Amino acid sequence: MDTEYTSTEIMVVTAAKEIRDREIVLVGQGWPAVIGVFAQRVYVPNITIVYGTGVIDPEQKFLSQTEASALHSVADPSFAAGAALVGDPLDVLGAELHAGKVDLGILGAAQVDKYGNINTTCIGNFKKPRLRFFGAGGAPDVANLAGRTVIVLEHDRKKFPEKVDFVTSPGYLGGGDARKKLGLRGGPSAVVTTLGVFRFDKKTKEMYLDAVYPGVSAEEIKTNVGWELKIAKELKESEPPTKEELKMLRS
User: Fold this and answer.
1) Within the chain, where are the H helices?
2) What CATH number does residue 212 fall under?
C-alpha cells in the first residue's frame, strides 16, 4: 500500500487523534461515527463509545469493508453489536450526557461559524429556506453538555459563514463569555476539516487556524472561510496518515 490519501482520510485520522484514552465519547452520525470506531481500534482502545440512539460501549468489530460501508445511520442495528447496553435515547442523552458523564462529543455540521455554532437545520430563512436539512437530533444536547466537542466537516466556503443561518447546536454563541453566562458545559475545542484544524481563542472564543495539511496553504484556507480568519502565530502542519493507519481505515 502506498501513502497516497484523500482529504477525507486525513480528516478522519486527524480528528481521531483529538480523542483521549479512557474518555466517554458520544459520536454523531456520519463521519463522527467512523472517527470514533477508527480511534478506538488504532489509538485509544479504552474509550467508551456511545450513540444518541441508546447504544453504550459496542464492540464495533466489522468483518468486512462491504459490511461497514452499508451502515448509513447510527440507528442501524450493526452499530449495537456486542454493546454493554442497547437502550433508548434517554439512557444516553439523559443518564450519561445530562449527568455530566460524557467527556467528548463529535459532531458533524452543514455550517459552522467563527464562534463554533453549528447549523444542521436549514440554509436561508427558517420560514422559507432554500434547503432544509435533517435537523437537530441529539446534537444540541451534546453541544450544550459534553465536556468538549470536536466538529468535523468537508471544507467549503459556503459551510463557513461568519454567522450561521440557524443555530441548531450552540458553540460560543457571540463569543467571549456568552456561553458561560448561560451555564452551558464545555464548548467546541476543535474544528477538523478536509483542509486543516481550527481551534478557539481562550478569551474571545473566535476560531483560528491552528494547523494545515501537507500541501495546503493558509491562504487557500483563508479564501474558503467567510470572515477574516486569524492564523496561529506558530502554524502547524498535521502529520499525514501512515500506511498502517490507512490500511486500518480502509478495512
Assistant:
1) 7-16, 31-42, 65-69, 89, 139-145, 178-181, 218-222, 243-250
2) 3.40.1080.10
Q: What range does the domain containing 55 cover?
A: 7-250
How does pLDDT run across 66-123, given as a tens digit for each residue?
A: 555 555 577 777 778 888 999 999 999 988 999 999 999 999 999 999 999 999 999 9
Residue 211 lies in a domain: yes
| Domain-located, residue 1 | no
pLDDT tens profile 217-244: 999 999 999 999 999 999 999 999 999 9
User: What is the rounded distance in angstroms from the CA atom of residue 32 to the CA atom of residue 111?
Assistant: 15
What are 212's three cell numbers?
494545515
Residue 157 has pLDDT above 70, yes or no: yes
Q: How far apart are CA 168 and CA 165, in angstroms?
A: 9
Distance CA 149, CA 43 (A): 18
* CB atoms closer than 10 angstroms to residue 178: 15
Yes or no: say if 122 and 131 are a contact pair by the CB < 8 Å rule: yes
Domain count of the chain?
Answer: 1
Residue 141: name the closest of 198, 99, 200, 192 by CA.
99
Within a domain: residue 72?
yes
Confirm whether 59 is domain-assigned: yes
Please say whether the dihedral angle defined by the alpha carbons of residues 125, 173, 140 and 161, taken in this order, is positive or negative.
positive
Mean per-residue pLDDT for 194-208?
A: 98
Dig out the grid coordinates for 103 from the structure: 467527556
Q: How far apart are CA 208 and CA 211, in angstroms?
A: 9
